[in-house]
Amino acid sequence: MVSGRWLAGAFGVVLVMAAVCSYATLGLLFYQGQWQLILHPAKTITATPQAKFENIRFDYTEEGVARLSGWWIPADAGAKWSGDTVLYLHGGDGSLSNYVGTLDALHALGVNVFAFDYRGYGKSEPTHPDEARMSADADAAWSYLTDTRHENGKMIVIYGTGVGASLAAELAERHAAAGLVLDGPNAPARQVIGSDARAKILPMWLLLTQKFDPAKSLRTLKTPKLFLDRDGAKARTEELYREAAEPREYFELKQGEGYEAAMQRFLGDVLT
C-alpha cells in the first residue's frame, strides 16, 4: 500500500518538474521570439517616393532568387551631388512605405538615394527579421552599390533611422564610407526588452541575442557623423553623441525644422 507521505512527495516532485518545464518553455519562447519586442515588420508597400525611382532586386541566392527588394531614386540631372549616394537603412517598424517622407527629403537635397527592405519586410524575402539578418542585408546593400553599381565608398553616406541607426553605425565600422547619419537612434534592445514583464523573471544575460546598440562602434569610429535629434529620442541621441569619437556633429530638429539645412551642411562637408 502506498503511503500518504510518498504520494505527497511524488505530487511535490511533479509540481516542481512542471514548474521547471514551464519556466524552460517560457525561456525558449522568449529566446526565439524576442525580436518581436523590437521589430514590427509589414509586408505591404502602400506608398512610394514622389520622384522617379527604379525597383531593384538584389542579393541573389544560388538558385537565382533575389532575397532583397529596394528602390533606386536617382538625383535629378545636374543636381549638386548627382554622383554621390545616400544608403538608407530604415527603422524596425512597417516597411519602406513608412519612410517615403524621409526618402523624398533626401532626394530633394540633390543626391542619389538607395533604400531597401530587410528580409521579412516589404517585398523582400518572407522570413522573420533579426539583428544578424538585418546586418547581413545592410552588407548586401553596400555590396550592391560598390560591386554592382561600381560606386566609390567615399561617395556613399550611410543613413540610419531608429534601429537602422545601429545597423548603419556597424556598417560604417566595416566599410569606408564618406559619412554616417544617425536619425533618431533607437534605445538599446536590452532596455526595450527589459521593460517586458517576462524579462523580469528570466535570465536576460543568458537569453538576450538582440543588441541594436551602436555605442561600442561609435566610440572608435572615425567616419564623420551627424546625430539628428528628433522628438522622443533626445536623451538617447545626446547620450550616443557624447560617447562618440570625433568627428561628430549634433543637430536638434524642433518639429522637423532645420533638417534640410543640417543635411546640406553635412553633405557639403563629407562629399567632394
Mean pLDDT: 89
N-to-C CA distance: 91 Å
- Fraction in beta strands: 15-25%
Shape: globular
Number of strands: 10
| Biggest pleated sheet | 8 strands, mixed
- Percent helix, as a range, is 25-40%
User: Rg from C-alpha positions?
Assistant: 22 Å
| Count, helices | 9
Adjacency order of strands in the biggest sheet? 2-3-6-4-7-8-9-10
Poorly predicted spans: none
Q: What structural category characterises the helix and strand content?
A: alpha/beta
What is the helix/strand order? HEEEEEHEHEHEHHHEHEH
Description:
- 39% of the residues lie in helices and 21% in strands.
- With 272 residues, the protein is an alpha/beta fold.
- Strands 2-3-6-4-7-8-9-10 form an eight-stranded mixed beta sheet, with helices on both faces. It has a two-stranded parallel sheet with strand order 1-5.
Summarize the structure.
The chain has 9 helices and 10 strands.
